[in-house]
Amino acid sequence: MRSNALEKIGFLGLLFYCIISAVLNKDLRPELISRRGEGTAWVLTLIVGLALGILHWRLGSVPTMAWIFFGTLGFAALSMSLGNWMDRKTLLRVDGNGVSFKNGVRDVRFGWDDIRQINVIPLQWGKSVQVIGDGKHFEFRTLGEMQYQGEVRGRLGFAEGEAVLQYLLEQTALSLLKEEKGRYYYGRA
């Protein structure tokens, strides 16, 4: 009887079931990137700030463009810190009742019937998956690997992202509405 059931769903169906079973009822977190760039941005901001302070103290004034440069560096460092903080707070959970997503600034929970649209957009590294419901949405990225000279230098997105996407499409029973330049738009028919 068991082999008969395996014949019905096939090997790929069984493989998909095994992958989804590993993803269900687990807290999924994205791959985290190195914080070296963030640290470098803060160090440069500090050095430029100190240099501007010394110039202002010695000369009495500093060119406006120098202050703009300092502000731009500070904004870049702050943006990187916010992005890294959100990545570390990001949590994606898929269970039998639906999907939830939290990242420090967004907390969204969808039942399967609440999801109205799923957009899949290819990126340089992985895919962007936009899950849209009534008045709320969230977005996650499937696994992408950054390579340099044939060697993987970094990973970002969810390692289980592709399996989560397939499971979302299966559970919501959304239809492919449009395909355009590698982008897929799923919705209720």
Q: How would you classify the helix and strand content by structural class?
A: alpha+beta
Order of helices and strands: HEHHEEEEEEEEHEE
Sketch the major β-sheet: 5 strands, antiparallel
Overall 3D geometry? elongated
**Total number of domains:** 2
**What gyration radius follows from the Cα positions, in whole Å?**
23 Å
Q: Count of DSSP helices?
A: 4
Low-confidence stretches: 1-6
Strand content: 25-35%
- What's the rounded overall pLDDT mean? 84
Number of beta strands: 11
Cα(first) to Cα(last) distance is 37 Å
Main β-sheet, spatial strand arrangement: 7-6-5-11-10
Helix content: 40-55%
Q: Would you kindly provide a written description of the structure presented here, covering whatever features stand out?
A:
The structure is a single chain. The protein has 189 residues and is α+β, with helices and mostly antiparallel strands. The protein has two domains: 11-30 and 92-187, no CATH class; 36-86. The chain has four helices and eleven strands, in the order αβααββββββββαββ. The chain has helices at residues 2-23, 36-59, 64-89, 161-172; strands at 27-28, 91-95, 98-102, 107-111, 115-122, 127-133, 137-141, 144-148, 151-156, 175-180, 183-187. A five-stranded antiparallel beta sheet has the order 7-6-5-11-10, with helices on one face. A hairpin with a 3-residue loop joins strand 6 and strand 7 (137-141). Helix 2 runs antiparallel to helix 3 (64-89). The longest helix has 26 residues, at 64-89. It is elongated, with a radius of gyration of 23 Å. It starts with a helix and ends with a strand.
